[in-house]
Amino acid sequence: MHINTTSTTLFIFFTTCTLLHLSVVSAAKCNPDDEAGLLGFKSGITSDPSGMLKSWVRGTDCCNWAGINCLFDNKRVTSLSLSGQSDKPNSFLSGTISSSISKLQFLDGLYLQNLQNISGTFPTSLFKLPNLQFIYIENNDLAGPIPEIIGNMKNLDVLSLIGNRFTGTIPSSISKLTKLTQLKLGNNSLTGVIPQGIQSLKNLTYLSLAGNQLGGKIPDFFSSLTNLRTLELSRNKFFGKIPPSISTLAPKLAYLQLGHNSLSGNIPDFLGKFRALDTLDLSSNQFTGTVPTSFKNLTKIFNLDLSNNFLVDPFPELNVKGIESLDLSNNKFHLKVIPKWVTSSPIIFSLKLANCGIKIKLDDWKPAETYFYDYIDLSGNEISGSAVELVNKTQYLVGFWASGNKLRFDLESLRIGQRLKYLDVSRNSVFGKVPKSVVGLEKLNVSYNHLCGEIPKTKFPATAFVGNDCLCGAPLQPCKA
């Protein structure tokens, strides 16, 4: 039999092309509801300077669009994730969250983080998404109350609304969200008290209500929240004592932040039982008495802030292997020396011991590690000697404050590198000239020393230079010829 090879070849070629075309068309398809929901969301965005949504084009495969994830088997959209970056000022979005997002019926995660300018109220269209488990609408510009019917979203695992402008009280219906592992409402403008119903959220590992205007006493209901690893209640208006039931969190709690409130009384002895504690912030309250000797058991503590209270001597010797940041400033301590467990720390970023009654010669202080210091504040003590060796050995130093001491050294000997932004050595016996390198600082205070000569051209006010022996030039009086 004679076979026309040319016809056969053409047939195979066209069949292959057709199949490839059908394959491409099939790949390009997006579920109509998902496409409508996502393009509706895009239509609510009024500004996208970095082109975050430029891949969102009708008729293409929405599973390949930026920030979209789909189920592998049926190609339905399961998560929408868009995030801005603080180091890229144009990586944000302006606009509102369109109600068409309710068309994404398979959505289980919504992540709109650090976009800065997403505004409007809490998107009630989310109540129509039965599979939604994760809501992260963080660091945007949403405002108004959190809806009372939030309790209807009973499948929620995480509710994070940190860094918006939400107002009003925390809805009592939040007690119905019993599957929650994380409740993060920090850095808003919420008022009222902590609702008692939060004690029903027994699966919580993370509770953050910091940075609001909440008041009253901290409820004594933590015995039912024993899975908590992070508790953040700082920067509110809470008063009274630390509730006893917080002691039940000892086995797992790693972060306890109660700073910047109006809490009072003694620091409870039971805090020494928190063997897993990494961070403890009790700063800027009204705590009195001594720091419990039980704190010697906090062997894992890396960040300890007890500053701005009314605490008195003696301060216990801690048994830490290393401390990353320590702030004991502005209490009624008379430490006399910088504690040995601080000096021997193999890594420390921040040391703040202002007004702690320290009487040492700074040249004699030989910390085990200075390379990684970011911040050192030794203001208001009776420290003598020179700061040159300490400051010049620190590779990453951002701020050095030592005002109101008895330091004596040549200011020009101080290495002021590119990283250093804050320098305050006012009210000492510093001598020499003001070096030109101070121009790169953000804040400077060398007032009330023994400096002389012409001030280099800077942006700093006269208050940064007054009270010296013979400084001249702007912003002080002109130098004499």
Automatic annotation (TrEMBL):
Residues 97-301 form the Disease resistance R13L4/SHOC-2-like LRR domain. Belongs to the RLP family. It is a single-pass type I membrane protein. The keyword Lyase does not apply. It comes from Crotalaria pallida (Smooth rattlebox). InterPro entries: Leu-rich_rpt, Leu-rich_rpt_typical-subtyp, LRR_dom_sf, LRR_N_plant-typ, LRR_R13L4/SHOC2-like, PGIP. SUPFAM superfamilies: L domain-like. Residues 32-70 form the Leucine-rich repeat-containing N-terminal plant-type domain. The lineage of its organism: Eukaryota, Viridiplantae, Streptophyta, Embryophyta, Tracheophyta. Residues 1-27 form the signal peptide. It is found in: Cell envelope; Membrane. Coiled coil: none annotated. This is Leucine-rich repeat-containing N-terminal plant-type domain-containing protein. Keywords: Glycoprotein, Leucine-rich repeat, Membrane, Repeat, Signal, Transmembrane, Transmembrane helix. One of its GO terms (cellular component) is membrane. Pfam families: LRR_1 (PF00560), LRR_14 (PF23598), LRRNT_2 (PF08263).
